[in-house]
Amino acid sequence: MLEPSSSQEAYDFVKMAFELSETFDTPVFLRPTTRISHSKSVVTLDDGAKTQSKVSMGFDPNPQKFVMVPGFARKRHFAVEDRMAKLAEYAETSPLNVIEMNDKKIGIITSGISYMYAKEACPNASFLKIGMCNPLPKKKIIDFVNSVDKCYVVEELDPFMEMEIKSYGCKVIGKELFPITGEFSPDLIREKICGETAESAAPIADNIPVRLPALCPGCPHRTVYSLIRKYNTIVTGDIGCYTLGVMPPFRAIDTCVDMGASITVAQGMSLSIPNKKMIAVIGDSTFAHSGITGLVNAAFNKKKILVIVMDNWTTAMTGMQVNPFVGETLQGQQTTPVNYKKLAEAVGIDDDNYAMVDAYKKDEVEAAIDRLMAKDSLSLLVVKAPCVIYKRKKKL
Ligand SMILES: Cc1ncc(C[n+]2csc(CCOP(=O)(O)OP(=O)(O)O)c2C)c(N)n1
Ligand code: SF4
Description:
binds iron/sulfur cluster, 4-stranded mixed sheet, alpha/beta, Rossmann fold, 38% helix, 5-stranded parallel sheet, single chain, 9 strands
């Protein structure tokens, strides 16, 4: 697992990840935490020649490696352990794990964005910057800890490196000082290591009104949410822009677990609350990704749920990508869109339990929900209209 500490490293480490993957025949994870994913900085790109892939295309069949039936898996486990041992050896000399020796009074073992914070807070300290956080370079770590007077492990949230390092018998300070919740900052590290409380350079006035995240003005998701509470039932939600329906003024959803769970959570709840028709709301992309399996299961198990697909023509929350209901591939080629009505039919939802309405026609949306909520079975309602930001982007 590689952990970048800057935009440049996020770029460089992807290439290293592919190289390691090829060299050691291993999957490699890249672990960019929140602040790395949400920050932007100048990145120097490799020239084309260097980025040319050396990987040959194709597939060499090898069921002993790619089909993990128990007999093959047992043998493969030896290969995995052998690979991890080789990777641990590589970690000792890898350019991903760098020692920066400065003042030996304070040593800091850190990785990812925490390295940047610690470097800003304690520029004169010595650092062991871990770019490959699994497997860890055990010998390098022990040598580093022994070469400084006091050693801190600065890692955001769970003490993954710290526990491992303490298991080597090393005396390091970590979660005795640093929190296991929230994000770190240079100020926090300065305070914990140097005992200096930062004076805020630009004090923030405390009378600024709180602004909650909200659906955009004109968002097509608003219609359903403005109506849904009148049905006095439990509304299971899902992940996308429409999760913001939980916020005032709508307060329209009761749960949100993971992609597709609106439908499956409603099924589970219907076992303990059998007399209410639950409503599950889900975006088009989420429905295509992992909602359809839940719908099949709900139909097969004769569940009494109204599934509302909020189709805004796009995958708004994560960058306006296409999805299987759009009729276009990611490369912009025309393709066959999934047909909701045929899908409903295939699953076993009859015409009486199916409707598609325009999200901006509030009366029609309301009439459709009224009609389907009165049915004693599984219903599918598609409420469709383009996201206003998507419309503007596409100049529709
Ligand atoms: C398993 C998983 N993969 C990816 C994501 C990231 N993700 C969050 S919302 C979302 C898509 C939402 O699109 P859609 O359902 O169309 O709703 P919209 O944002 O357009 O309202 C994705 C992919 C996730 N939360 N979980
Ligand atoms: S981006 Fe689109 S889908 Fe998301 S809240 Fe705004 S209008 Fe609605």
